[in-house]
Amino acid sequence: MVLALLKNVLFPSSSRGDRRFAHYGTMKELLTDAGEVESTAPGSPTTLSQAEADIEARQQPPYDGENCRGWKLNPRIISDAIIGLSDGLTVPFALTAGLSGLGDTKVVVLGGLAELFAGAISMGLGGFIGAKSEAESYKATLNSTRALIQTSPSETQAMVEKTFKPYGLTTSSTLVISKTLHDSPDELLDFLMRFHHQEAAPATSRPVVSAATIAGGYFVGGFVPLLPYFCVDRSEVLLALWWSIAVMIVALFSFGWVKTGVVCGWSGRSKMWAAATGGAQMVIVGGVAAGAAVGLVRAINGS
Q1: What mean pLDDT comes out for the span 91-96?
Q2: 8 A C-beta contact, residue 278 and residue 67
Q3: What are phi and psi of 11, to 5 degrees?
Q4: pLDDT at residue 38, as a whole number
Q5: Candidate from 37-46, 80-89, 142-151 with smallest mean pLDDT
Q6: Which of 211, 201, 184, 76 is nearest to 140 (CA)?
Q7: CB 66 within 8 A of CB 268
Q8: Helix, strand, coil percentages, rounded to 5, for the chain
Q9: What integer pLDDT is reported at residue 66 of this predicted model?
Q10: In this model, does residue 34 exceed pLDDT 70?
Q11: Crossing angle, helix 75-99 and helix 269-302, to 10 degrees?
């Protein structure tokens, strides 16, 4: 979580696109049902095909456009893995580096393992509770929207009109779409949830998957910088610390490389460069986070 926050601060990315276009095919079907779109203002779409072209033009590709059109993983899983691995690669490393000042690798290993298990459990529980809260929020929104459809058609009609307002549709065309949706309460409910509230139904396994992904990522990420302390004598703490730093740099770069490659693809020079850039960013922000933590521990220990 710390690493992801620093990455956003040091390497901000512009927000691309609008989530309302995530279900583009369904929106096209609704526009088709509405028939042709009449022009009411200069520069507004005058036909159905022009309206669709306007929608398509407003869609923005994710992450540097043509550089990222590879095979896609579930973004929620990627996000959970990044949260777990990023914290795991920084927090336990800072702890083991601080404990190395005691001059005994056994103390470092025991303290590091204790932190790994406690941190993984804590992070996993946090992911589980967060996913459960998300599901509860979706259910509450779904129930309130269903009740609104049954009790206040005028308000749901206003919600439909507000959803279509950015598309340049005339009032008559919007009314046709609204009537079509209101003829089927189930379709209207689905439309309002997906386009107006912009919420998708979470999978029932989401809490467990999120908890396992975050906890597993944290443990794996935290175990990597701890490995060198298993391979040296108890008195060679400084040697293990330098090896731990080297291993962490390689792990951070590899993590950034693989993460970017999985999201964007591997074929082509531009995608390979994007993967290398992603790896370098992870090393920089990981080094900043870990360096700050180690420096604080050393300063407190020195005082």
Answers
A1: 80
A2: no
A3: -130, 70
A4: 43
A5: 37-46
A6: 201
A7: no
A8: 80, 0, 20
A9: 43
A10: no
A11: 30
